[in-house]
Design brief:
Shape: globular
Helix content: 40-55%
Order of helices and strands: HEEEEHHEHHHHHH
Structural class: alpha+beta
Strand order of the largest sheet: 3-4-2-1-5
Distance between the termini: 61 Å
Radius of gyration: 21 Å
Largest sheet: 5 strands, mixed
Number of helices: 9
Length: 246
């Protein structure tokens, strides 16, 4: 049963007054705001000041809840949106601000921050280059070879675990879409393509529970097919010329 959201908002309101009294706004985001929270969920908040010496992340307990606080001002938020989220493809902070609820009176300040976050999300991540695609193809191909004939079930599970994020990231980024991490991957896949999501989850379930990787090999082939398929022969990765020590 999801915790009562009104109680959560009250707790964050108290937190605002006690720990961040000079902050202009706090956005409450994450699973609790989506109605998917549990008794062990974190309070994910973005705390925004008018000006701050530097951004920081703060982890602590408050009123019986674990809190993950991302503390910023508008300029540090903009930096993270453009220089951290966009290149990596994971819109963590922009999504929290865009989807979060202001735990204070809505103001032009908070509206402006939401507009900035929405614009960043609409712009999408930095596009992958042909070399990015090639590197990812090679990585997936190498991992797939490992699961075709694993030494034991433990190595199979370890490699399958890596493939979960690598294949999903390739699927998103090769389409120019924002990616997802960890537990957010199934939710993101469902939103983008429910049919592909079902095949993805089924293939990984079969690999984990039945030690059968056939469907996973087929899934990887499907994801790579429009980008040249599996890659080994001819792959070359250059080290920077400055990578040397006398």
């Amino acid at each position: 049963m999801s915790p009562d959201i009104s109680e959560i908002k009250t707790i964050v309101g108290k937190l605002h007054k006690e720990k961040y009294p000079d902050a202009k706004v706090i956005f409450l985001a994450g699973s609790l705001m989506r109605g998917e929270g549990t008794s062990t969920s974190d309070l994910d908040i973005v705390v925004v000041y008018k000006n701050l010496a530097n951004a920081y992340r703060d982890s602590y307990s408050y009123d019986g809840w674990p809190v993950e606080a991302f503390v910023h001002d508008p300029e540090t938020l903009k930096y993270f949106f453009d220089e951290v989220d966009a290149p990596t493809g994971y819109p963590s902070l922009a999504s929290m601000v865009s989807e979060g609820v202001e735990i204070s009176i809505t103001s032009q300040f908070s509206i402006g921050l939401k507009e900035m976050a929405s614009k960043a999300l609409q712009s999408g991540p930095v596009a992958w280059t042909s070399k990015d695609v090639e590197n990812a193809r090679y990585h997936i191909s190498d991992l797939i070879e490992d699961i075709k004939a694993p030494r034991d079930v433990h190595e199979l599970h370890a490699t399958v675990s890596v493939l979960y994020s690598v294949i999903s990231n390739f699927y998103f980024r090769s389409k120019g879409l924002w990616s997802a991490k960890g537990k957010a991957i199934p939710r993101r896949l469902q939103r983008v393509d429910a049919q592909f999501s079902a095949r993805f989850l089924s293939a990984f379930e079969s690999a984990y529970t039945k030690e059968n990787s056939d469907d996973l090999v087929s899934l990887a082939s499907e994801v790579l097919i429009d980008h040249g398929g599996f890659l080994f022969d001819g792959y070359r990765l250059e080290a920077p010329s400055g990578w040397r020590k006398g």
